[in-house]
TrEMBL record:
It comes from the Bacteria. It is found in: Bacterial flagellum basal body. One of its GO terms (biological process) is bacterial-type flagellum-dependent swarming motility. The keyword Signal does not apply. It comes from Ureibacillus terrenus. Residues 5-35 form the Flagellar basal body rod protein N-terminal domain. Residues 224-267 form the Flagellar basal-body/hook protein C-terminal domain. The keyword Transport does not apply. Keywords: Bacterial flagellum, Cell projection, Cilium, Flagellum. The lineage of its organism: Bacteria, Bacillati, Bacillota, Bacilli, Bacillales. This is Flagellar hook-basal body protein. NCBIfam families: FlgEFG_subfam. Residues 115-174 form the Flagellar hook protein FlgE/F/G-like D1 domain.
Length: 272
């Protein structure tokens, strides 16, 4: 079996997976709060190929010495090592709906991020940057999928109607009465979060993230009647998608070339 088939096939698999991720990014280019996935492709360790043979020494009894001759390095292919969300803030735009909110990043430590706090149906908390909320039949502030939005104390936020105001510091007012404060969580290392469906994130160990309010070197704000858009760069994603497709196609041609070589070896050379 030709070892090059495995090298080319690994390239096809990696590029296929990259294509799927880029396609998903482009499909969510208009999803509020969506964070684009970034891929990291890495090569497998190279193998040093050597030829082993014998060297005849012209002595009376005959002597053969083992000889190792270096042939060169052989690449064993590539693989998609990991995918990581890009937590850079997307563009903020106005919607005119009272139940829409956008988190505005201010001063944040490198690698960190902030999120809205949600109550997860399976227990614990989930986190999102999508502030496209609504009120359910009982007046609770929820996401489009029915996850309860939590306050800074971890309680559900219940409102009498959609006639309310939210200040920049997250305080919710009905008239002059302060009802609650929208919960905002802080992730010191956002890349350690586990991404779930519908733009949700959870911690690896299931523990809740600390509050972002009152933390040193952390500044942010909230904007009511605004949403944070996706941070997908459609033009760049399309260019990367075409590059991945061409790389897949090139590896595919290599596999086809090997296949033709084996076909000749079996059906033509074998008859001689």
């Amino acid at each position: 079996m030709f070892k090059g088939i495995y090298t080319a096939a690994s390239g096809m698999l990696a590029q296929q997976r990259k294509t799927e991720i880029l396609t998903n990014n482009m499909a969510n280019a208009n999803t509020p709060g969506y964070k684009a996935e970034q891929t990291s492709i890495r090569s497998f360790p190279e193998m040093l190929m050597s030829a082993i043979g014998d060297t005849n020494v012209p002595v009376k009894k005959g002597l053969k010495l083992g000889q190792i001759r270096p042939v060169g390095n052989l690449s064993t292919g590539i693989y998609l090592q990991e995918t990581m969300p890009n937590f850079n803030q997307g563009a903020v735009y106005e919607t005119e709906f009272n139940t829409d909110f956008a988190l505005i990043d201010g001063e944040l430590p490198a690698g960190s991020s902030i999120f809205f706090r949600l109550s997860h149906p399976n227990g614990g908390e989930a986190y999102t940057r999508n502030g496209n909320f609504t009120l359910d039949g009982q007046g609770y502030l929820v996401t489009g999928d029915g996850y309860y939005v939590l306050s800074d104390t971890g309680a559900r936020i219940q409102l009498p109607s959609e006639d309310f105001q939210v200040t920049e510091d997250g305080s919710v007012y009905v008239g002059n009465r302060r009802i609650a404060r929208i919960g905002v969580a802080f992730a010191q290392n956002a890349n350690r979060l586990v991404k779930e469906d519908n733009g949700l994130f959870r911690t690896e160990n299931g523990q809740a993230l600390p509050s972002a309010y009152g933390r040193a070197n952390v500044t942010f704000g909230l904007k009511q009647r605004h949403l944070e858009g996706s941070n997908v760069d459609a033009a760049q994603s399309m260019a990367e998608l075409l590059t991945a497709y061409r790389a897949f196609e090139a590896n595919q041609k290599v596999v086809q070339a090997y296949d033709r070589s084996m076909d000749k070896a079996v059906n033509e050379i074998g008859k001689v």
